[in-house]
Amino acid sequence: MAQKIFIKTFGCQMNEYDSNRIYDSVKKIGFQKTKNYEDASCYLLNTCHIRDKAKEKVYHEIGRVKKIFRSKQKPLVIVAGCVAQAENQEMLKREPYIDLVIGPQSYHKINDTILNHIEKKKKIEETEFDAISKFEYLQKIKNESKGVSSFLTIQEGCDKFCHFCVVPYTRGPEYSRPFKQIIDEAKNLVDNGAQEIILLGQNVNAYSNEEYRLSNLILEIEKFSELKRIRYTTSHPRDMSDDLIEVYKNSKKLMPLVHLPVQSGSNKILNLMNRKHSISDYYKIYDKLKKINSNIEFSSDFIIGYPGEEEKDFQDTLQLIKRIKFINSYSFIFSPRPGTVAADLKLIDKKISIERLEVIQNLLFKNQTNMNKSLENKKINVLVENLTDDQTQVFGRSEYMTSVIFNGKKEDIGKIMSVKINKSNRSTLFGELIVNSNQKVA
Ligand code: SAM
Ligand code: SF4
Ligand code: F3S
Predict the structure, then answer these.
(1) Cβ(165) to ligand 1 under 6 A?
(2) Which of 22, 50, 52, 174 to mutate to test the pocket of ligand 3 (most atoms within 8 A of CB)?
(3) How do the domains of the chain map onto residue ranges?
(4) For the domain with range 379-440, which CATH number is right: 2.40.50.140, 3.40.630.30, 3.40.50.300, 2.40.128.90?
(5) Is the Cβ atom of 167 under 6 angstroms away from ligand 1?
């Protein structure tokens, strides 16, 4: 009988991609995915270390698993992802219930590590940085993802070392996969039915392999006639090169939403963060893209209450948000991360950070609500991804990634449908079907 694996994923889209690929791999040694963790003979936690008490959350989760399996056979417990990388050996020492610890650049070893453990009952930790071997291995294992919208990691790691961020330590140095390897995987995803591909990287627009850049990848992937939409995330303002900006002129499938984290509207804070770009650089990118296509919209990430942030800096961030009118953004209070430069800086008053977060979120949410409201009574194109939970309607996404619910049918999944929006709230648009516009791209 097949062994059952339960995979719980935290963090960014790259972790979601990794979890899918881990599953593609362990399938080869007889594991089958289960949605019910109580059935699992292997419990894998793919972790994120970006904010808060990430490490404690993992131990808490393991404690929960321990309780659930108290009167049953203990599952094989694997901690993968960025906490595994950051904590490595420590995890095995602190929590004997954990059997294997495996960092994000070691997933090519996952099958051998599991088999080795089953045979020898030895606790194993694998946390070397070896992106080349990982992707060479994964290339040989088909990406079985069958989503209408599929992730494809093209780049890993980061060399920028923003003072607040753990990614350079948990994901290692920047590595860009070979162009052909990516195109082959994209073809595979399209053959599996992907209508949208989201190219991923911690610094996706820093992609550089031989003479190829992200712009070349987008234009090449676009040639797959069945593919309707292309997106990429997450990009850094410094790598928003002219060739990439030009793609917005030439591409028919690249979506008009640019997720470009800025973190703060104050040059002083950007400097303290070691962001290596200024606000005027950001405006230049904005202006260039808007000139190419005024329908391009922006979303961003903000860190509030970074050490040294004064009222004036915060007001600058509000100013930036008022000018750019980001349509969807993430904002969090600064969380000191162990091992980073900003880890020991003097924090600003927590109450002030909480108040500022509330102000900024109100403004961001207002932009989002207004953007959605402006679409009421208009016709938009929606890529249908699935039936709603109650199976009575369908769920899809607009060109700007906004969730749309309308009266479609199961047969519409994977198609672009024309929908008239009747109602909206901050996060969702509700509409009704007009005509099937499947022939059109976008
Ligand atoms: N590479 C992207 C960039 O340069 O903006 C960001 C990737 S990071 C995985 C995602 C987001 O997490 C960042 O944009 C930042 O806003 C947030 N983040 C990272 N470290 C943080 C920290 N220590 N405290 C709060 N938010 C943090
Ligand atoms: Fe982290 Fe992004 Fe800065 Fe790299 S560029 S250190 S991933 S925030
Ligand atoms: Fe988290 Fe690692 Fe992604 S820290 S945000 S899972 S790169």
Answers:
(1) yes
(2) 50
(3) 3-130, 133-373, 379-440
(4) 2.40.50.140
(5) yes
- Assess whether the C-beta atom of 12 lies below 6 angstroms from ligand 1: yes
Round to whole Å and give the CA distance between 361 and 367.
10
SS3 of 386, please?
Answer: strand
By CB atoms closer than 10 A (0-12, 13-18, 19+), residue 146 is exposed
- In this prediction, residues 318-337 reach a mean pLDDT of 96
Helix segments in 251-348, DSSP class H = 267-273, 279-292, 311-324
Ligand 3 pocket, CB under 6 A? 11-12, 14-15, 48-50, 81-82, 166-167, 170-171, 202
- Residue 160 Cα to ligand 2 middle (Å): 6
Q: pLDDT tens digit string along 89-123?
A: 999 999 999 999 999 999 999 999 999 999 998 89
Three-point CA angle 295, 356, 306, nearest 5°: 90
Please state the atom number of ligand 2 nearest to the C-alpha of residue 234: 2
Is 102 in contact with 128 (CB distance < 8 Å)? no
* Residue to substitute in 155, 233, 236, 277 for testing ligand 2 pocket (most ligand atoms within 8 angstroms of CB): 236
DSSP, residue by residue, 73-135: PPPEEEEEHHHHHHHTHHHHHH-TT--EEE-TT-GGGHHHHHHHHHHH---EEE----HHHHH
The pLDDT tens digits for 369-392 are 999 999 999 999 999 999 999 999
CATH number of 133-373: 3.80.30.20
Instruction: Tell me the per-residue pLDDT of 228-261, one tens digit each, with 9 for 90 and over.
Output: 999 999 999 999 999 999 999 989 999 999 999 9
Architecture of domain 3-130: 3-Layer(aba) Sandwich (3.40)
Ligand 3 geometric centre to CA of 143 (Å): 21
Pocket of ligand 2 contains residue 203 by CB under 6 Å: yes
